[in-house]
Amino acid sequence: MAKIYYQEDCNLSLLEGKTIAIIGYGSQGHAHALNLKESGCHVIIGLYEGSKSWKRAEEQGFEVFTAAEAAKQADIIMILINDEKQAKMYKEDIEPNLEEGNMLMFAHGFNIHFGCIKPPKFVDVTMIAPKGPGHTVRSEYQAGKGVPCLVAVEQDATGKALEMALAYALGIGGARAGVLETTFRTETETDLFGEQAVLCGGVCALMQAGFEVLTEAGYDPRNAYFECIHEMKLIVDLIYQSGFSGMRYSISNTAEYGDYVTGPKLITEDTKNAMRKILKDIQDGSFAKEFLLDMSDAGGQVHFKAMRKLAQEHPSEKVGEEIRKLYSWNGEEKLLDN
């Protein structure tokens, strides 16, 4: 079993006298930077010239530089920009400014595992991957808590890579919850599989299919939205809090009985075989190749943008927009603005 590290296993003082460059100031970037700063670390921000985040980072008390200048000044460089943009930015801005003993960090193993970024042998290469969105990493830290993280070491040039990565995990609050040791390969492949087969691809397709079946049968789309989409959060929150058993304890006997007899009719061996094919495409690099080609200048994101447009036109989106106006607690506008 992989080891889980906690606060007592981490030494924040290892970051004293170090300059940490956070490359990117989006969801994860702002959370890492602010948490580290409030933990007493010296943090600078690296952005491209003209970035809309530049002013925001300065207003929140950071020195902001181009990515190249930030990398030149830093001892620790955490790359927190989109996967498809990392390799080009690394080659142009970070690689020429690396020095012996630097630590190059990631929050997802994609570019290292698939060989898009190949660091020199004289730097540490590590990962701290919070298992939650940036705003949660930030809010949990502010509440005196933390979001669990994964830690991995791909390259240990200094002999202290793991200790330094764990210090970083403590600095962002992750060690308050627990830091699970893993590898770049395991994190990358399981993360991509979870997103595609379950959390995003699987769940969204299941909810939309349920919506379609009910509306095609003549039921009011608003009823369909409530039953197949709205209530998903209620069930997931129960699972999040107390597992499947806790969720089943909280729902009606009718719902629990239906869970047991109907789930296996939907998720069959054919479904699992499709999942196995998805996993194989991730493991052998087929998905990464397809994704990077579409996101490249040559690909022009044509397929990506077409899929996004098609998804936005699904009937459940229009109904959902109407339904969500009824929620007094809804912060959708704020979420979309961010």
General description of the model:
- α1 runs parallel beside α6 and α8 packs parallel to α9.
- The chain has a 9-stranded mixed sheet.
- The protein is an alpha/beta fold and 338 residues long.
- The model has no long low-confidence stretch (mean pLDDT 95).
- Helix content is 56%, strand content 12%.
- It starts with a strand and ends with a helix.
**How does the overall form come out from the CA principal axes?**
globular
Order of strands in the sheet with the most strands? Answer: 1-9-8-7-6-5-2-3-4
Q: Summarize the biggest pleated sheet.
A: 9 strands, mixed
Low-confidence stretches: none
> Using only CA atoms, what is the Rg?
22 Å
Number of strands: 9
Count of discrete alpha- or pi-helical segments spanning 4 or more residues: 17
**What number is the mean pLDDT?**
95
- Class inferred from helices and paired strands: alpha/beta
Distance between the termini: 38 Å
Oligomer: single chain
How helical, in percent, are the residues? 55-70%
Q: Indicate the proportion of strand residues.
A: 5-15%
